[in-house]
Amino acid sequence: MNQRSETYIRVLERRIAKLQELFPKWIRVEDALPDDKQKLIAINKRGGMILMEYSIQTLSILFPKDYTHWMPLPDPPNICTE
Predict the structure, then answer these.
(1) Which residues contact 9 (CB under 8 A, 6 or more apart)?
(2) pTM, rounded to two decimals
(3) Mean pLDDT of the residues in the chain
(4) What's the 3-state SS for the chain?
């Protein structure tokens, strides 16, 4: 591989790393719990997925027992109605 190809590959790798930062990542329940009223997708211990709004009052005890990972949902798009 020549110098120009290696430079191009490094540029692409940096771009890929920046793009990966834009997407949410799965968070292990053991590492962190969601914020109160946070909208998220979660994976239960049987591999099923669910969309939910996390509630500290109702889920803080159940969530770590039933779910393995979670990911915040992105903000909804701005929809202009005219």
Answers:
(1) 1
(2) 0.67
(3) 88
(4) CCHHHHHHHHHHHHHHHHHHHHCCCCEECCCCCCCCCCEEEEEECCCCEEEEECCHHHHCCHHHHHEEEEEECCCCCCCCCC
pLDDT-derived band at 56, boundaries 50, 70, 90:
confident
Please name every residue paired with 52 in a beta bridge, in sequence order, or none if there are none. 40
* Amino acid symbol at 57: Q
- Whose CA is closest to 56, among 38, 44, 68? 38
pLDDT of the residue at 25: 87
d(CA 40, CA 71): 6
pLDDT one-digit tens code per residue, 26-35: 999 999 999 9
Q: Where are the domains of the chain?
A: 24-82
